[in-house]
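Tutorial sheet, problem 5. The two components below are modelled jointly, 226 residues in total.
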Amino acid sequence: DSGVTQTPKHLITATGQRVTLRCSPRSGDLSVYWYQQSLDQGLQFLIQYYNGEERAKGNILERFSAQQFPDLHSELNLSSLELGDSALYFCASSVEARPSNYGYTFGSGTRLTVV
Amino acid sequence: TQLLEQSPQFLSIQEGENLTVYCNSSSVFSSLQWYRQEPGEGPVLLVTVVTGGEVKKLKRLTFQFGDARKDSSLHITAAQPGDTGLYLCAVGGNRDDKIIFGKGTRLHILP
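Model answer (structure tokens):
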């Protein structure tokens, strides 16, 4: 157990629908990062939050949004889902805002299948 | 264009053999990390290298950071089935806060 909790573990939904993925960071970590992993693109950075504020943005689609709550858990909202959104979505956390020698602690991911 | 190029993409070898996988870039980095990801799990940090020419050992795994801090290698001695997984190298953004990952080397050790 890495200490980063992601729910649900699996999600199957239809095109056009909206889903919410949840992440609880490791105790004491203030930064939360969301990544999308597909076979052809690898791990792609989506967005980072630090202590409730958006810190960095990557290749996140406009149909996707995220937020970090006062208790530091984070949610990633995916709407108007398309078949191509099927992927593994990982949350990671770290103590600091900037990348450090300590790296990230990843959760086990949510496997999203859009049918 | 990928910032980090990992090679080979796939590697399947017999238990007991040695292997080396590579992570290359045209950019200079202040540090570089290696992660291992097993099926159904998230990546797990193995090591961080920060000094050009640095060599770090983790049991049968030897990590090296290139002198120019543009590349790195991971050497596994006497590979075991438990070494099977996706090996990812990663670097911190030079100007921002995200970590960028290579596409990884998928390693399969045959018993």
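Marking note: Chain B touches chain A through 24 residues (CB under 8 Å). Full credit if you identified this.
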